[in-house]
Amino acid sequence: DPRRKRGRPPRVDTPMECRIKNIMKGLRKCKDEHGNMRVAAFERLPDAKQFPDYYQEIKNPIALDGIRKRIKRREYKSVEQFEVDIRQMCENAKDYNRDDSQIFRDAVALEEELANLAEAEKARDDSEFQGGAEPNSRQGVNKQMRIPLKSIEHKGETYVIGDWVHIINPNDLSKPTVAQVYRTWEDSDGQKWINACWYYRPEQTVHRYDRRFYEHEVVKTGQYRDHQIDEVLDKCFVMFFTRYSRGRPKGIGNRQVYVCESRYNEAEKHFNKIKTWKSCIPDEVRGQDYEMDLFEKQEPLKKFPSPIAHLLPPNATETDPIPEAKMGAENAPPIVGAVFKRPRGPNVSFDHPKFNSIKLPAGSSQSLLRINKVSMPQLANIQSIITL
Known about the structure:
single chain; 388 residues; alpha+beta; 9-stranded mixed beta sheet; 23% helix
């Protein structure tokens, strides 16, 4: 199904970013006389408890995992800046370890390989990098040219990676697609594009008929879709539910604000509560935060019945197959989701207003429960429900 073909945003790199990634790949290919990868010992910093003296001797500790994070977040502004970090990593290893140690020899070899790889990459013309694809590769020949853009001007607004937007929904113009921008680029014809991660509204998902949702709730999907900038209507905002009850983003004016608590697995028709909000947003903005206008008092969040609960057939049973959403236009969310009556899975999630924040695995004891202001009578009531 082409509607489910993409689980991550496309690669849209500048020639400089392509060079850095190619150098990283080349360093991973560097091996010693026994065929071992020389970068293996440089993946992470030494354990502070095992090697406390390392952090006394080494003033600028750095390892490959940190360098990769900087690459993902597009923090490097030049190949030379990236080279400085790799050399620092190697120098640290040489300063701390004996001259006759394997890691010292690996550091020397990696510095030499870095110099060779960087020289080769810098000698290549920018035109060899077709929108982030490798030159002479099938991807580079067939894919549309993508020229990365830092921002896109559209209808008096500036759009950048991390922005929340409303996109035209051809299946229902009254319910624009809620999405977050992951990529911005221009094609060879001058058309500007974004790649955005879709967030579904409750009525666009498939779920149990008695599932409850917050007002203005959306769920993160695995759909990362390309859209021309002309399809973008305006900006909106999505907040993690833990902050939604405490206030609103400062300075967003009259933008529509949504709340998100879960990821939605479209294939399995399953909802998973999000543990870390930063894992849901683009790498480039994970280090950023926004100021808030706080409420005078934290507002309790209430859940409401599914907006499509009425779609459950009168003769539905717990053995019916899980239904499919009704699909329409290819590059848009479902026209409408569906509801079913099948039993809950092993992780029983109660959406009753009195205990909609409790998750109780079947057969769990009182000590395993994660309880949010639940009294013992309520707990007894929950346990009696499970035994039914």
